[in-house]
């Protein structure tokens, strides 16, 4: 699971959850990959990304170094910023661990890079 | 063939390890999925030359996702079968994968995606796989959560196999209730084999539906997808002769046997008469 995906994931499908965002991460295994840099895509995704949640996630994974604390002005033309955003959103992958609902504490296990978002019948 | 897959078992059980492997090794299946995925992406009407963030609903082993990657998009896939997702992982697809049940709703933030595709998956939502399942409610939960996580103006295209018209009605009514506009595009409507159903849903208010393929008979293109199946070619081979099992065919065959010197009953008015159908 890339951090881009984590950034858009919520637990709001569960009963009793209002916002369900952001999900906490406890990671047992993290991988760093090399992914082709697409500045246009990253530039557009930055508009959708919740930056504080991204920082929190990177911090939970212990990969916070080099992540800019906030989105800079005129980021579309700032290649250095885009490259850093790309690294954190697309190249850091959680392989094993848990995602945690901030309102109920319910855990969603991540196995082999795939989060299990299946809810029990009594949870939806 | 024992009928429609969704009548045999819930999807996470039907697509177990063996079926998942078979599905992804079957070259004919892969070819069909590829063509349908490309058509679905075409119907999405995404802005040209722009990499988009797409969700693949019922992504399975990633066959449709690969089309998205090929066209330069970044995608996330959701499926209920861990065996199918396992195959996708083995094939090292680019998209992020999630194990989830579409009928429980999509767990994403508002406006997360620029588009959605789904190949051969939607019909699975129309059956109650568990006692507690209410297909209409699950469809509504699915469509309303999908509406929420799509950015305004984006589309969702579903290729699926409807069992009957009431299923189409059920699906479209829940989609409309959830706020979508749009409708069904049927490619090659006159061909039993090539006919394909695409549900095209839009979020940006009423827009004209894309034109279906194979509808205009004045087109030079054949009125069905050129399949290389042996059966089609064989159908044309009997063009000059009598159709099999007809009275003429029987009389011809008896003549052939006589010429071969085999013992043959004489022809009579009863030769090749219609018999009452048997009850075995």
Automatic annotation (TrEMBL), chain A:
A biological process from GO: tRNA methylation
First-listed, main subcellular location of the protein, grouped into a coarse class: cytoplasm
Location of this chain's protein in the cell: Cytoplasm, Perinuclear region; Nucleus, Nucleoplasm
InterPro entries: Trm112 (IPR039127), Trm112-like (IPR005651)
Entry keywords, A to Z: Cytoplasm, Nucleus
Pfam families on file: Trm112p
Keyword Cytoplasm: yes
Entry superkingdom: Eukaryota
MF terms (GO), sorted A to Z: protein heterodimerization activity
GO cellular component terms listed in the entry, alphabetical order: nucleoplasm; perinuclear region of cytoplasm
Family: Belongs to the TRM112 family.
Protein name: Multifunctional methyltransferase subunit TRM112-like protein
From TrEMBL, chain B:
Keyword tags: Cytoplasm, Methyltransferase, Nucleus, S-adenosyl-L-methionine, Transferase
A Pfam family that the UniProt record links to this protein: WBS_methylT
GO biological process assignments: rRNA (guanine-N7)-methylation
Transmembrane recorded as keyword: no
Biased composition (Basic and acidic residues): 245-254, 261-270
GO CC entries: cytoplasm; nucleolus
Assembly, per entry: Heterodimer with TRMT112; this heterodimerization is necessary for the metabolic stability and activity of the catalytic subunit BUD23. Interacts with GRIP1.
Name this polypeptide is given: 18S rRNA (guanine-N(7))-methyltransferase
Lineage of producing organism: Eukaryota, Metazoa, Ecdysozoa, Arthropoda, Crustacea
Name of the gene encoding the protein in the UniProt record: EOG090X0BBW
